[in-house]
């Protein structure tokens, strides 16, 4: 008779039991067991011929299936936690069909900038509009000397490098105002997935995204540029960093998304990206501290990976000192794996 080792929900491993097939009323788990076994055998068979033994599982296969099952539980718990913490409409999913990597151990999900000690973020505007229709009247962008950023389809119509001024908490317009887009957060369901090309985690959209649409914000810990330089030296040894200089008007502050961030923490680089960086001002009108928004540059189909250029600045220019996800501040040249026809060959 065929027996399966069962881990009981809510009970420790010490209470695991062996059960015959007729006792198991869990077709999904049995299918996952079969899939994991098949995947392991197909991986091994690439290197050498191996015969599947129906009487007993080889220890290596059993070990892989247990690890895969524990990984699946850990990723599900992480997915649940991310969705509890996020404050936007779009759902977050997590997927790893590539390896046994589990959730990151030192990452904390946040929805907005987290100021480092000594840095004050004044999130209260001093004035607001009194429009009845912000699309046609002299609204917040006009007061700041720029054009309204969006058309009637909620798509961005201004060129890269132009700042976005949205209506704020002092404005008399309601939540349906056409000039409130970034502040509503991500509207699309996204998936953090394990890439198969050696780029670690990535992010893909699960729904079609129209061109020139807001997709997500880049958030993290706001630190001084001096602290960013110090951290960059430390990150250099690890080969990773997530430093984005807030250099819209000055170069005093940097966003570090290494430990604190949102879905954008997992978005990979491409030399031919489908996301574009824009500086945004809403309640905090301090030009040293713009919010960073990512908009689609073209139609992005469901299942497609989201990418942005790590060297792209909010000004629309390309600079290696702008976003610095790989070894810090151009100290080490890191080979780019984006695979784009226009690939520059290096991330920095």
UniProtKB/TrEMBL annotation:
Main location: nucleus
Protein name: Histone-lysine N-methyltransferase
Domain of life, source organism: Eukaryota
Binding site for Zn(2+) 1: 129, 131, 134, 139
Chain ranges of the Post-SET domain: 332-348
One GO term of the biological process aspect: cell differentiation
Molecular function via GO: histone H3K9 trimethyltransferase activity; S-adenosyl-L-methionine binding; ubiquitin-like ligase-substrate adaptor activity; zinc ion binding
Keyword S-adenosyl-L-methionine: yes
Protein's UniProt keywords contain Transcription: yes
Source organism: Panthera tigris altaica
Enzyme superclass (EC): transferase
Ranges that cross the membrane: none
Amino-acid positions noted as binding Zn(2+) 3 in the UniProt annotation, renumbered to this chain: 134, 167, 173, 177
Domain Chromo intervals: 1-45
């Amino acid at each position: 008779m065929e027996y399966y080792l069962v881990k009981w929900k809510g009970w420790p491993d010490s209470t695991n039991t062996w059960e015959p097939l007729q006792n198991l009323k869990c077709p999904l788990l049995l299918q996952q067991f079969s899939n994991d076994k098949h995947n392991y055998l197909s991986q091994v068979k690439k290197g050498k011929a191996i015969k599947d033994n129906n009487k007993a599982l080889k220890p290596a296969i059993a070990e892989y299936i247990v690890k895969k099952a524990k990984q699946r539980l850990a990723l599900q718990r992480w997915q649940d936690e991310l969705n509890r913490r996020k404050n936007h409409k779009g759902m977050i999913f997590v997927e790893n069909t590539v390896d046994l990597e589990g959730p990151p151990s030192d990452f904390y999900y946040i929805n907005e900038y987290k100021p480092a000690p000594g840095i004050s973020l004044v999130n209260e505007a001093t004035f607001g509009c009194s429009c009845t229709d912000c699309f046609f009247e002299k609204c917040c962008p006009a007061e700041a000397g720029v054009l309204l950023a969006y058309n009637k389809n909620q798509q961005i119509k201004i060129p890269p490098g132009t700042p976005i001024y949205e209506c704020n908490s002092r404005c008399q317009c309601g939540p349906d105002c056409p000039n409130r887009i970034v502040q509503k957060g991500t509207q699309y369901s996204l998936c953090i997935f394990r890439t198969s090309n050696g780029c670690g985690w990535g992010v893909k959209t699960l729904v079609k995204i129209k061109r020139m649409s807001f997709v997500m914000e880049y958030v993290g810990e706001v630190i001084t540029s001096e602290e960013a330089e110090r951290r960059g030296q430390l990150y250099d040894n690890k080969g990773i960093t997530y430093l984005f200089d807030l250099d819209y008007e000055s170069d005093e502050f940097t966003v570090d998304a290494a430990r604190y961030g949102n879905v954008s923490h997992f978005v990979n680089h491409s030399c031919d990206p489908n996301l574009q960086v824009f500086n945004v001002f809403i309640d905090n009108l301090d030009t040293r501290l713009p919010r960073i928004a990512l908009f689609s540059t073209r139609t992005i189909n469901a299942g497609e990976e989201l990418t942005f250029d790590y060297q792209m600045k909010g000004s629309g220019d390309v600079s290696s000192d702008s976003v610095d996800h790989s070894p810090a501040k151009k100290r080490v040249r890191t080979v780019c794996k984006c695979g784009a026809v226009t690939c520059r060959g290096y991330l920095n």
